[in-house]
């Protein structure tokens, strides 16, 4: 819910010309980041995409929240509120931000919290995650890496090269594919010969899972279970989380306003969003 409110506030600031550059919102996809990162250790590492406000906030807050904190009973610590403000400042290009305002919306980073960076290049974070995972294996830390990317990245060469190498070296990494059905305005069925992208895991000899990305509890349980084997050195895995990007590629207008999807489709998916169901 915090991520959802954050994104809507950000859209308002963008419409008031307070944010430079595009704003790639994560409304509709919050449950994937919240569920997956809740299953991790504070010391685990995360890499993400150009659409990564939800990943960044989830990882940063997961790192900062005290052990045993209960969202239904406890107030939000002031340090966490300050972190949210600092994230907004970074996206707005202000010096108060995590990177002094230099990273902006698409190049967020909080190394202390284990968020190694988001990347404006489609699929650009995938090969970087291989290096991060190799580092954890080499140092024998017991920590793992989670690399988030979208359906638009699965046809990039870096995706196939990275999964092959990760499986070959049994790297401690979870590849988490957020399938929101659209790469800008291109439906995934127009770009992929198979509908279930998660089965691509079998091509590289790794476990694959397909989950409901609108249910944070399901995502949490699958990531938690998968991470156990990954930590033991059993090799990486690929998880496809099916979700939906409520708005257009960037900004707060619906995709239907651009003609590539219908109002009926948007209504059906919006009724499934975690922010309205939990």
UniProtKB/TrEMBL annotation:
Q: Where is the Dehydrogenase E1 component domain?
A: 84-269
Question: Gene3D superfamilies from the xrefs?
Answer: 3.40.50.970
For this UniProt entry, the molecular function terms from Gene Ontology, in alphabetical order, are: pyruvate dehydrogenase (acetyl-transferring) activity
Q: Name one GO biological process term.
A: pyruvate decarboxylation to acetyl-CoA
Q: Any keyword Oxidoreductase?
A: yes
**Alphabetized Pfam families for the sequence:** E1_dh
Q: Which cofactor does it need?
A: thiamine diphosphate
Keywords from UniProt, A to Z, are: Oxidoreductase, Thiamine pyrophosphate
Question: What is this protein's record name?
Answer: Dehydrogenase E1 component domain-containing protein
């Amino acid at each position: 819910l915090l991520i959802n409110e954050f994104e809507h506030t950000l859209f308002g600031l963008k419409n008031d010309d307070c944010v430079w550059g595009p704003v790639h919102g994560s409304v509709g996809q919050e449950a994937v980041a919240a569920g997956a990162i809740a299953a991790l250790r504070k010391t685990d590492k995360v890499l993400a995409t150009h659409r990564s406000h939800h990943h960044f906030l989830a990882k940063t807050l997961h790192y900062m929240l005290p052990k045993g904190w209960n969202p239904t009973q406890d107030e939000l610590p002031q340090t966490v509120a300050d972190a949210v403000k600092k994230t907004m400042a970074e996206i707005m290009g202000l010096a108060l931000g995590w990177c002094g305002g230099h990273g902006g919306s698409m190049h967020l980073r909080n190394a202390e919290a284990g968020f190694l960076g988001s990347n404006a290049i489609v699929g650009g974070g995938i090969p970087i995650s291989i290096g991060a995972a190799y580092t954890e294996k080499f140092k024998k830390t017991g920590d793992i890496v989670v690399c988030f990317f979208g359906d638009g990245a699965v046809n990039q060469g870096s995706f196939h090269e990275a999964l092959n190498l990760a499986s070959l070296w049994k790297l401690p990494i979870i590849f988490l594919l957020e399938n929101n059905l659209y790469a800008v305005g291109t439906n995934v069925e127009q770009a992929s010969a198979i509908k279930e992208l998660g089965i691509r895991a079998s091509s590289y000899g790794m476990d694959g899972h397909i989950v409901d990305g609108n249910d944070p509890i399901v995502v949490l349980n699958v990531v938690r279970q998968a991470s156990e084997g990954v930590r033991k050195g059993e090799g990486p895995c690929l998880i496809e989380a099916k979700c939906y990007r409520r708005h257009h590629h960037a900004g707060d207008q619906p995709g239907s306003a651009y003609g590539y999807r219908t109002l009926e489709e948007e209504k059906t998916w919006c009724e499934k969003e975690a922010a309205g169901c939990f």
